């Protein structure tokens, strides 16, 4: 769409292009313009300025490190400490952190201004179908969710501004656009849409009886799966009530009536028997748990999975010995600068090993790449490689397994 | 549940739990930079609003506040406005962008060039 004599420029789609559903916060003109600024600011930070970090490393930080230590850095942490002293990386990181904080401030301002309407809409939708939302005030917020506010979101997924509200869910929903510069599509559901596409190709004609989505938040990525399998009974669990309230109302308004949202801790799935589900999944979830909770959740997931069933975890790629240390370092940025305290350790875990320990045989495991499925006429393809926004790119790895092998 | 009124302006600013990293060598620089980038964002919002006013005037010759609030750019306008924001961001981020360029070139200090020119 660029003019003659003008190179095509990479700009974010306007915030007004996102789809609205029954509980979407309605932006004022300037609120939308704030997200438009942030979306494009993030694009410049990752696309234009991001490669400057590697330059600073190669030209300045690494040579100095070698001179001082007489060797190469031995891990991503040494690189981080050295890079944190570099003036270019300092201003880049400070810009990025401020962008994250502004996204929260801007989102909260928009949501809290209209919280009365949002709460009323959510309540009306939730009360119209009370059977598919099950809240349980006895469910505790796990320490790994409460230690810090994850990705600098004040109050995290479970915080309330007043009892029973949906502010956390609404703020999470509206601001993802800014953080990912629109890369996840009109409903920020490009990951779930990709899963729905993937399974149709992977196992044509299959209709799972029951699906369990662990850590669903507001259901961004389970709704497209539910719409693709309207006959399937879907259970979506989360520990955060305000996100579930909002997510359930959102799902109703989008016509996903076959999801039951339940407040439950995934470390204890004792409510379900062995083999209850045909498909157990997490999307962008495991990195927000902890060293002990993660294997426990995978073990529980294995137990409730039926023979021939599918387990799938969508995440940013794991670090491996083949991944250059610099790339590990830059992928680690969110861990230390955007309140993701388990991110770094999680991405270094041997996920396949953990899945094997839970019961899968090695041959049953697979890893596949997944790219967000979005309306490309409005939402541009997410960049990969050097220009990608590490940690937020709309391309993931799916770490999966078929229990007992994939049925023929 | 009581829908008690909230001071949303104040609440919007709530700090996220978790110690904030310091990015610059001087903590004051972190504080000033936060104000600066917030201001950069607000200037962008003003420019976008002005663009809205101009587009509405072009189209109808008159505008109301409602027109502004309800303005939704079509595909082409959306792109043009995005490009306007990008151009603005590139301009205000000139410093870091040029710092990045100079990393590529490894330029000698102007003093050295000056000394050289004296001799040739
Ligand atoms: C990054 S979000 C997941 C995003 C979501 N799956 C999606 O695709 O949009 C992590 C979520 O996991 C929830 N959570 C964390 N630990 C949990 C646990 N042990 N059991 C259930 N939910 C948990 C949090 O409340 C939060 O909503």
Q: Could you describe the 3D structure shown?
A:
- The complex is a heterodimer of chains A (408) and B (120).
- With 408 residues, chain A is α/β, with parallel strands linked by helices.
- Chain A has a single domain, classed as Vaccinia Virus protein VP39 (Rossmann fold, 3-Layer(aba) Sandwich), CATH 3.40.50.
- Helices cover 43% and strands 12% of the residues of chain A.
- Chain A has 15 helices and eight strands.
- Chain A has helices at 29-48, 50-69, 76-83, 87-113, 115-128, 143-146, 167-179, 190-202, 223-228, 241-253, 293-304, 325-331, 333-337, 343-347, 351-358, and strands spanning 133-134, 210-214, 233-238, 259-263, 277-283, 305-315, 365-371, 395-402.
- In chain A, strands 1-4-3-2-5-6-8-7 form an eight-stranded mixed β-sheet, with helices on both faces.
- In chain A, strand 5, helix 11 and strand 6 form a beta-alpha-beta unit.
- The longest helix of chain A is centred in the first third of the chain and has 27 residues, at 87-113.
- Chain A is globular.
- The relative contact order of chain A is 0.13.
- The mean pLDDT of chain A is 95.
- Chain B has 120 residues and is mainly alpha-helical.
- Chain B has a domain at 24-100.
- Chain B contains six helices and no strands.
- Chain B has helices spanning 8-11, 27-60, 65-70, 75-92, 94-105, 110-119.
- In chain B, helix 2 (27-60) runs antiparallel to helix 4 (75-92).
- Chain B is flat.
- Chains A and B meet through helix 1, helix 2, helix 4 and helix 5 of A and helix 1, helix 2, helix 4 and helix 5 of B.
- The structure holds S-adenosylmethionine.
- S-adenosylmethionine is lined by residues 142, 145, 157-158, 214-217, 220-221, 237-240, 243, 265-267, 283-285, 288-289, 293 of chain A.
């Amino acid at each position: 769409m660029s003019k003659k004599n003008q190179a095509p420029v990479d700009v974010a789609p306007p915030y007004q292009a996102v789809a609205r559903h029954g509980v979407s916060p309605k932006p004022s003109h300037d609120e939308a313009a704030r997200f438009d600024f942030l979306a494009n600011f993030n694009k410049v930070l990752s696309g234009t300025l991001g490669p400057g970090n590697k330059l600073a490393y190669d030209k300045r930080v690494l040579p100095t490190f070698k001179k001082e230590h007489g060797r190469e850095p031995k891990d991503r942490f040494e690189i981080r400490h050295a890079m944190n002293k570099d003036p270019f990386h300092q201003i880049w990181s400070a810009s990025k952190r401020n962008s994250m904080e502004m996204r929260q401030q801007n989102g909260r301002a928009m949501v809290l201004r209209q919280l009365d309407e949002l709460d009323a809409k959510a309540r009306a939708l939730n009360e119209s179908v009370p059977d598919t939302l099950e809240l349980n005030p006895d469910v505790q917020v796990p320490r790994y969710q409460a230690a810090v506010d994850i990705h600098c979101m004040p109050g995290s997924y479970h915080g309330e501004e007043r009892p029973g509200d949906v502010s956390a869910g609404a703020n999470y929903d509206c601001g993802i656009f800014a953080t990912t510069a629109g890369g996840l599509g009109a409903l920020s559901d490009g990951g779930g849409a990709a899963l729905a596409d993937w399974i149709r190709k992977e196992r044509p004609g299959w209709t799972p009886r029951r699906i369990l989505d662990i850590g669903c938040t507001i259901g961004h990525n389970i709704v497209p799966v539910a719409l693709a399998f309207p006959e399937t009974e879907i259970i979506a669990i989360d520990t955060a009530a305000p996100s579930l309230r909002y997510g359930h109302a959102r799902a109703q308004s989008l016509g996903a009536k076959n999801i039951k949202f339940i407040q439950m801790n995934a470390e204890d799935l004792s409510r379900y028997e062995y083999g209850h589900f045909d498909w157990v999944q997490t999307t962008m979830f495991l990195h927000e748990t902890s060293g002990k909770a993660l294997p426990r959740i995978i073990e529980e997931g294995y137990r409730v999975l039926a023979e021939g069933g599918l387990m799938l975890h969508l995440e940013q790629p794991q670090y491996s010995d083949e991944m250059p240390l610099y790339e590990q370092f830059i992928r680690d940025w969110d861990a230390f600068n955007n309140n993701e305290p388990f991110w770094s350790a999680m991405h270094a875990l041997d996920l396949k090993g953990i899945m094997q320990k839970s019961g899968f045989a090695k041959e049953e495991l697979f890893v596949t790449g997944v790219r967000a499925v979005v309306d490309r006429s409005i939402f541009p393809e997410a960049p990969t490689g050097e220009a990608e926004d590490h940690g937020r790119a709309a391309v993931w790895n799916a770490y999966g397994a078929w229990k007992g092998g994939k049925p023929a | 549940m009581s829908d008690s009124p909230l001071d949303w302006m104040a609440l919007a600013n709530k700090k996220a739990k978790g110690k904030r990293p310091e990015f610059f060598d001087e903590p004051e620089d972190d504080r000033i930079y936060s104000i600066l980038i917030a201001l950069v964002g607000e200037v962008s919002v003003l420019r976008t609003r002005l663009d809205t006013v101009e587009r509405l005037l072009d189209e109808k010759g008159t505008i109301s506040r409602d027109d502004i609030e309800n303005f939704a750019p079509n595909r082409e306008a959306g792109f043009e406005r995005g490009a306007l924001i990008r151009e603005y961001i590139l301009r205000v981020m000139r410093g870091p962008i040029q710092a990045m360029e100079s990393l590529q070139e490894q330029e000698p200090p102007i003093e050295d060039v000056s000394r050289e020119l004296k001799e040739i």
